[in-house]
Amino acid sequence: MNELNVKKRVAVVGAGMTKFMRRAQETGKELAFEAARQALDSASMRIEDIESVALGSAPDAFDGVHMKGEYLLDGAGAWRKPYSRNFVGGGTGVFSPIHGWFHVASGLYDTCLVVAEEKMSTCLPHPQTAFLTIFDNMIERPLGPNLIWIFALEMQRYMQTHKIPKEQIAQVAVKNKRNALDHPSAQIAQAVTLQDILDSEVLAWPVQRLDISPVSDGACAVVLASEDVARKITDSPVWIDGVGWNLDTTYWTNRDLYFPRYVASAARMAYGMAGISNPRKEIDFAEPYDPFDYKELHHMEGLLLCRKGEAPKLTAEGVTQRDGKLPICPSGGLLGVGNPIAAAGLMKICELFWQLRGEAGKRQVAGDPRTAVAQAWGDLMQIGTVVVMRA
Amino acid sequence: MSYKELIFDAAVKAYADAGVDPRRDVESFVCSSEDFYEGTSIFDEYVPDQLGGALKPVCTISGDGMYSVSTAYMQILAGLFDIVAVEAHSKASDIVNISPIYDLALDPIYTRPLGVNANFIAGLEMNKFLQASGANHLHCREVAAKNRRNALSNDLAMNGADLEPNSNSSGFISYPLSAEDVAPLADGAAVVVLAGEDAAKQLRDDPVWINGVGWASDSPTLETRDWERATYAALASKQAYHQAKVHDPAQAVQVAEIDDTYSYKELQHAEALALTGRDRAHTLLQDGVFDVDGQLPINPSGGSIGMGHTLEMSGLVRMIEIVKQLRGQAGAHQIHGAQTGIAFAWRGVPTTSGAAIVLSNR
Q1: ipTM > 0.85?
Q2: How many domains does chain A have?
Q3: Which of A253, A310, A361, B138 has the fewest CB within 10 Å, making it most exposed?
Q4: Which residue, A352, A351, A355, A360, is CA-closest to A389?
Q5: Is the CB of residue A65 less than 8 Å away from at least one CB of chain B?
Q6: CATH 3.40.47.10 fits B3-94, yes or no
Q7: Contact yes or no for B74 and A106 at CB 8 A
């Protein structure tokens, strides 16, 4: 990779999202439309102003719709436009704006509408049944593993390596669910106590019910534009200055799960492009992927925002609170706002956009933030997707 | 062979052909798959190792391999990478019955309850196209016969045959569509290596250049789409021609490899790609213009009808066949003196999505 070759700057000029909820009455197309419409409205643009569309959505098995990208096409505003769907599992939400970035940074298009949609609650009896089909069909599926089991393994390994007490990890859920109280689109914002988390049902030790984000429906969208066009659209574009993604080996059983090295590689790529040499000093706030509370900590370390094993300590000290020195998930994250897989990742990009424009309302982090990072994670504990944005 | 073995096989051949080491030289990998064809959700989990892509930037595009080529192309144009590999594959033989999978691509509320299958929809569209263009189903049988005959000289093809276009065939599966009009499913894997201009010139003396790419979609609903013309193909190729500065495609292009999932699609796509005038394709076909020794050979490889239909890999096969033609390595079906070619992919029923690429050896 030669980051010096990247010449075109790409900006986010608009963002929108639906409310995240369980059992939305809207179809997936309608959710995509609502988010896309909001994003366009926020940039005072019409669909005719959009030259290309990039869609992100996670497994077709949720909706039971084959070629879900084709199905969502008109809802996402892509009729008679260049349109394609990217898919990197749970990492999709933050990869979608990267996919959109390709469209604009390549010089092929001046604008790209990025839409991420997920409708999980159509999967009956529970979306976890769709996740049963993600495992290797010969080696793993006969064992009947599910996602909560394998994440319990990863969480256990992380806790054991750094001797982290469960209480420190549960603090993340307390923080994020409280942060989400200020998010108008949040699904499970709640003023929970540490004890509530620790008393919740054990699903696969050490994972308890309130350690996990919910099943959600929802969609998000952002509008990307080339530098010239962006400056005509708005006085306050937010720049995508770094993109990175990295996929580790399929054989997750063969690597040490205590540290997400693929996230670190993706982060290094994005920081390199953004000219960031010391992320701990240069990043003002972050939205790491938090489908489980331990993942926020794991990903802070993967994003090189602290030393390995240090994230729980920073959390305990209040550094990661919205008014702390390094706010983490000021949106409320997946634990508070909800987790419609691909849309949840793009929600983090929307949050960066609003925060960096000073438009986050009650969620606004202090101190005029200029640089922030968002990240998502997915597949078999395998992919990291990272975007660095600047005001 | 498993899909992993097929992909490994194709990757090794592609890397050897390009003279690259995937661990050292290839900076990014773009793969192509749809979960329901694979029988595995989040299929992109299963791609890195056999490609040499583990711990590197690897992503999946849920689409035909030609869409993945366009993504890799954008990555290179953006200045992000110099060398990118693109992968697509088909393990169609693992699919017990593909028809219900196609059915799941229909809108679950409005059209799926009607119980219309993919061949039925293709038959409807074929009827509309034939009626509008003045062609008939025997022209379509001629397309199939041409492509199967062409496939006889392609070592990679599985469906080569020298048959007379038969009006007395097995009958219609959905009037006017007959079994002969449908490309049979096949397994396979394809990998291509793309490189930026400087890197490409260092790798080899005879690179084939991508002069333009385009992709586009019409309406996804059966109710509101253009049934008569392949609007998506017209839109996609317009972009590609514009980038490639091709003003008169029929003159500029010496060879075309275009989607023939169904025989009528070759004619419909040829018109939409402006390789022929409107309603002219069937006449030119009869005049032999599209034959291997004709003025504008279409699918000299045998196309999907002759080579086998490889699901999301189809577009990459079409592209590879053009690359071989432009390098003069197409063997018995070589079109002599070919300098510019077009490849076009369609994502199949019930989509209205397609991608085009204009390639040149100079």
Answers
A1: yes
A2: 1
A3: A361
A4: A352
A5: yes
A6: yes
A7: yes
